[in-house]
Specification:
Layout: E1 26-31, E2 44-52, E3 55-60, E4 71-76, E5 79-90, E6 97-102, H1 106-120
Length: 127
């Protein structure tokens, strides 16, 4: 595993091997609760701290029972997918947690690629 320096994300959160970009996007996320299917799902709002093609890092209010290996639903704009929590650690703000989510959905990867391209100033024709 390669650790890449990133001025936006504390070193202890560096686990992705793809380059991260300090792109901020609003997202909503919620756990996938299989045991309590009659309950209304808990949904939280957050802003990404950084993104890569296959992952998202964000700080949010902590949700009980969400830890490494948990399945969650992530929504950015109109794109929604199921993803896996790869790590969950105390956040930099009091009472928050920093979550690292792995993305494998191609539609979400396309959304992240467009955001990275916008951040880098790359046009679709210049790829």
């Amino acid at each position: 595993m390669t650790v890449l320096p990133d001025s936006v994300t504390p070193l202890r959160y560096q686990r992705r091997i793809a380059r991260r970009y300090p792109v901020q996007m609003a997202l909503t996320w919620s756990p996938i609760e299989r045991r309590h299917w009659r309950r209304r799902p808990r949904t939280c709002r957050a802003t990404t701290a950084n993104v890569s093609l296959t992952g998202i890092g964000f700080e949010s209010v902590p949700l009980p029972d969400i830890d490494r290996g948990s399945a969650v639903t992530i929504t950015i704009g109109e794109t929604r997918c199921t993803a896996a929590v790869r790590f969950s650690q105390p956040g930099t703000r009091l009472g928050s947690r920093y979550y690292g989510i792995e993305i494998t959905d191609s539609e979400m990867m396309n959304t992240l690629q467009r955001a990275i391209d916008d951040y880098r100033g790359v046009s679709a024709a210049g790829r």
